[in-house]
Amino acid sequence: MDLALQWGFLSVVGLPIWLGAALSYELALLGHFVVTNRWVFGQAGHSWQRLGQFQVTALAASAITLSVTFALVYGPLGWFFAGGAGPFLAKIAGTVVAFGWTFTSSFFWIWRGGAKA
To answer: Distance between CA 1 and CA 61 in Å, rounded?
Structure first.
């Protein structure tokens, strides 16, 4: 969804890359929230509190992904992760750690046992 929206914002609407990429990411994130809220956790209504928590979790997940990626590429293990497929492996590791954060925060903070709106 993110890439399709970005393509539309850049190619059809003519937005600058920085704006089209940011808008497409945020709209895809909102779509992800709606699907997760309704179909994964069975919430009939929407909650501004849950949406805010979801946004904070997503921002933290981005920071975690980048932090782990950069720590592996530029840190003590940089000799292994700096070249070839290394940066991609580092990004995968960062994504796995961020997934753990997102999964945990979804179940124990945002939707803890079907949190009420």
So the answer is: 19
State if pTM tops 0.90.
no
Whether the predicted pLDDT of 114 surpasses 60 = no
Residue pair 57/102 in contact by the 8 Å Cβ criterion: yes
pLDDT (tens digit, 9 = 90+) per residue, 77-103? 999 998 898 999 999 999 999 999 999
Chain centroid to CA 41: 18
